[in-house]
């Protein structure tokens, strides 16, 4: 069955993106296997709403530069749309649309009252100086003001953005509407109504899933080795949480290079080293040796955690993986061709829409707290996160075993069915 969305491909602005076509192919597979209504499936294939904006910014040297920004809302059926905002040099409309679609399934699998959304600005944040990032963020917020709101679309941090970025969005939106509106974003500073534990939530959720997988496979954490691709918020927190379980992280990579120490990398020392160097990289860490990036994913280990970009595991390298568990901390790190190869191996896959759902789950907690103006302590946040993550993990495993399908197919089926069922019950207006 074709991965192409319905309608005329020539008029579809998303189809030039291989990431979007990958998301469509996954959806087609679920529709075929689950026997979903084709009309509903066609509606799910295309985003509900997409906006492209130009974002002019006065740079530090006085000249004006114009950036391109995107906000895609895949679904508004289950509630307001929810999803991160990323700053990345090569981000495009199709990539953002795919990420928004995956967020819909993620919210579905976690039973959150959201649809999926995503945003992006085509910029390398490392190249921004002085107040450029703030001016960029505030102008982008102003440009998309007409399609965001606490009951419409709620943004959160993603690649290249952080809690300070969310604080600027919160302030800009609040100035426009005339009152403080902390529920317009999640992942903001605790002092502004952010949720304790939100920054660590995605990494913690990854490790909750890894712990369940190891228990099912009867592998003790003390005998577990891990390789992590990406040492940003998700990758670094995942490493810290694995060390707490007494697992050993033996290799780590980031955008600048990869390092390895088979005796185990001291994560506390690596974080200190990273914080003190200008590029914020793991490269050059004195207690590990440099390795070629191509070797990172092929390093023998118990758990491999791609926690950076999408489509890094392909048909070319899938057969070279030497892990027992593949825990997808990033969105869409494994393409369909690689999936077919991995399905014939003994690798236990924890799919992205389950594995990295901790972030949106605690974002939901933050949104609820802001709406109610009643804040939780971190003990409650972590307990509620663990409860929902383990419940979702077990539902996916039950589905996979009952239907004799892969974990990815099971997870996608649960997420897609929830959204499709809600669309079907609401009907088609008019």
Q: What order do the helices and strands come in, and which of them pair?
A:
Blueprint lengths: L17 H17 L3 H8 L3 E10 L5 E10 L7 E8 L4 H17 L5 E8 L9 H12 L9 E5 L5 H15 L20 H20 L7 E5 L3 H12 L3 E7 L2 E4 L6 H10 L12 E3 L1 H4 L6 E4 L18 E3 L8 H7 L5 E3 L1 H4 L2 H15 L5 H26 L3 H20 L4
Parallel strand pairs: 3-4, 3-5, 6-7, 6-10, 10-11, 11-12
Antiparallel strand pairs: 1-2, 2-4, 7-8, 8-9
Helix pairs in contact: 1-2, 1-3, 1-14, 3-14, 4-5, 6-7, 6-12, 6-13, 12-13, 13-14
The CATH architecture classification of the largest domain is 3-Layer(aba) Sandwich
* Shape by Cα distribution: globular
Rg result: 21 Å
List the secondary-structure elements in sequence, H or E.
HHEEEHEHEHHEHEEHEHEEHEHHHH
Low-confidence stretches: none
CATH fold name of the largest domain, please? Rossmann fold
Helix content: 40-55%
Coarse structural class: alpha/beta
Within CATH, the superfamily of the largest domain carries the name NAD(P)-binding Rossmann-like Domain
Q: Could you tell me how far the N terminus lies from the C terminus, measured between alpha carbons in angstroms?
A: 30 Å
Mean pLDDT across every amino acid position? 96
In what order do the strands lie side by side in the largest sheet?
Answer: 9-8-7-6-10-11-12
Give the assembly state of these chains. Answer: single chain
């Amino acid at each position: 069955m074709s991965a192409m969305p319905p309608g005329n491909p020539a008029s579809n602005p998303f189809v030039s993106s291989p990431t979007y076509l990958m998301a469509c192919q996954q959806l087609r597979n679920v529709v075929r296997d689950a026997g979903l209504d084709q009309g509903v499936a066609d509606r799910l294939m295309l985003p509900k709403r997409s906006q492209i904006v130009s974002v002019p910014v006065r740079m530090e040297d006085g000249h004006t530069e114009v950036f391109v920004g995107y906000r895609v809302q895949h679904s508004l059926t289950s509630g307001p749309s929810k999803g991160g905002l990323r700053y990345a040099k090569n981000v495009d409309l199709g990539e953002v649309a795919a990420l928004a679609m995956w967020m819909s399934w993620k919210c579905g699998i976690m039973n959150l009252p959201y649809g999926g959304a995503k945003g992006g600005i085509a910029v390398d944040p490392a190249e921004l100086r002085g107040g450029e990032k703030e001016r960029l963020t505030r102008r982008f917020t102003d440009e998309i003001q007409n399609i965001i709101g606490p009951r419409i679309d709620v943004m959160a941090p993603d690649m290249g953005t952080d809690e300070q970025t969310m604080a600027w969005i919160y302030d800009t939106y609040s100035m426009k509407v005339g009152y403080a509106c902390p529920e317009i974003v999640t992942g903001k500073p605790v002092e502004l109504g952010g949720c304790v534990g939100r920054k660590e939530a995605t990494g913690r959720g990854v490790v909750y899933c890894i712990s369940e997988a190891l228990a099912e496979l009867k592998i003790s954490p003390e005998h577990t080795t891990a390789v992590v691709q990406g040492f940003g918020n998700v990758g670094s927190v995942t490493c810290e949480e694995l060390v707490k379980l007494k697992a050993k992280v033996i290799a780590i990579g980031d955008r600048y290079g990869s390092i390895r120490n088979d005796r185990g990398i001291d994560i506390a020392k690596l974080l200190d080293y990273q914080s003190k160097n200008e590029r914020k990289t793991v490269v050059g860490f004195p207690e590990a040796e440099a390795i070629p990036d191509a070797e990172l994913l092929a390093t023998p280990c118990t758990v491999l955690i791609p926690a950076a970009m999408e489509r890094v595991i392909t048909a070319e390298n899938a057969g070279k993986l030497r892990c027992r568990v593949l825990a997808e901390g990033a969105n869409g790190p494994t393409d369909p061709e690689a999936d077919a190869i991995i399905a014939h191996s003994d690798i236990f896959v924890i799919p992205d829409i389950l594995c990295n759902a901790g972030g949106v789950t605690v974002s939901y907690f933050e949104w609820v707290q802001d709406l109610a103006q009643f804040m939780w302590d971190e003990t409650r946040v972590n307990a509620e996160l663990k409860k929902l993550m383990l419940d979702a993990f077990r539902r996916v495993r039950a589905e996979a075993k009952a239907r004799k399908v892969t974990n990815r197919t099971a997870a996608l089926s649960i997420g897609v069915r929830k959204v499709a069922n809600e669309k079907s019950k609401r009907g088609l207006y008019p």
